Amino acid sequence: MAITGFISDDHDSGFLERYRIVSNHINKISKGKHTVIHGGNFSSKDEAFMGVQQGVLDPAEAIDSRRPKYEAINEELGKFDAEVYGVLGNNDCPEAREVITNMTFLDAEDKTYRINGRNVYGISHSSGNVFNRKEDRHSTIKEREATLDDKLNKADWIVTHEGITPESCAGKTSYNSKLNKKAKARAAKRPLINLCGHAHKPQTTNEDGITTVRSYTQQKRGSAYFILHEGAKDTIYEVSVSKIYEEAERLAPEEFNEDKSRPFVLPGQNGEKFVAFHDTPENIKKCLSFPLPSQRLQTTDGKPVIAFSKDHWDSFMDQQAQLQQNQAPQETPQDNPEAPEPIDFPAEEPAETEPQEDSSSEESEPLAA
User: Please, which residues have CB within 8 angstroms of residue 343's CB and are 6 or more apart in sequence?
Assistant: First the structure.
């Protein structure tokens, strides 16, 4: 059994670090191979992007201002306990490939890759981006036009930044109609999966034999995906970005607790949980005021903390909230029209795809088991 994680459009949001923590945890507890695919847009529309778009900065110079950002991304990618693949997005400099070396760019060469038993083919953002000269915006598609049928016939998955159907692109963004036509012809023979980003409304659809998986992980309303491989069967699970944030901070609370005055949840043995404070003079004084039994523990990296049973802590907090409620005048939503409405999160259901034929080829690269 193997797992492929798919993310896209993290836009310098801090999501990549949190996803890496969750990804490495999955890799540790699973018995199979965990691989990650990134759908592009490692950066936002920053000064480099806007400068090129407005014609005041040469595309060749943009990489100079982007280099520190790409170096930080490359360092983070190097911490993954998984092989990482990806494509460029519309916000990315083509020169990013020179700096981001801890990821294999699927769109850099005209070939298929073997990933978790699937033949995977990657193409750059189909409408180009501002960092490419205008006359070359569609060069990748044009250069590959003669080989596209052959590569699509071999591919089980195609990875693009934009989708290959107009519905899978955000807003009025263009897409390549020739690629769409060829992909539909290929999908008529057997199911085809398209992993794409650029869609500000993440979702999975199946149309004309093409299962389109749209990821967008910039904001907490977005989603990442985990694809479970069992033989020729792929089962796609959508996981909200907010859930990834929550899990990362649960798995590595010390990495996200820069304010040492604030408590955090510390996992214990056998599923036990604690509410912990960093061992500082201020926190010691604060913890002595709580009418709860405490103990001295350590975080995973050996930092001393003062810890309370989470069950005891939650019960104590509930009592405090009830006391405050009894002492304060009752307020209804009508009294406070700005009061936020409760959010009802729907249950996340997996989507299954039809079994695929194994279509390995001599041109496929055995980069992942």
Answer: none
